[in-house]
Design goal:
Number of helices: 4
Distance between the termini: 26 Å
Number of strands: 2
Structural class: mainly alpha
Strand order of the largest sheet: 1-2
Strand content: 5-15%
Radius of gyration: 14 Å
Largest sheet: 2 strands, antiparallel
Length: 113
């Protein structure tokens, strides 16, 4: 297997669930933005909604430690990981690459997508 950075591994995990964050030539309608945008950006929007819905409605959300009543800081943390993976996979500048811990935490959440 070829070497992959953590953000590439994370995108492969998301891609297996149907959420490839790599921008391409495909445009997808984003209800959140009310217009067509690159597919990678649309998937970030959709994943953000899924994360929000999970922490608000799921009885399983207690699998993640240190939650308050609305799932923060885990909700915010997972959304930030997804946004960072999107930025890295598309070559945008980021402050810090995806860490082993972030990859492990995102992997823990993937079954709930």
């Amino acid at each position: 297997m070829r070497y992959m950075n953590n953000f590439q591994k994370a995108n492969e995990l998301l891609k297996a669930k149907g959420y490839d964050l790599k921008n391409g030539t495909e445009k997808v309608y984003s209800p959140q933005r009310g217009k067509e945008i690159d597919s990678g950006g649309a998937h970030v929007d959709n994943l953000t909604d899924l994360v929000d819905g999970y922490f608000v409605a799921s009885p399983d959300h207690n699998l993640f430690e240190d939650l308050d009543d609305f799932g923060d800081p885990w909700r915010t943390y997972l959304v930030c990981i997804i946004e960072d993976v999107y930025n890295q996979i598309n070559g945008y500048e980021i402050d810090q690459p995806t860490t082993d811990r972030e990859l492990a935490d995102l992997t823990k959440f993937i079954p709930f997508l």
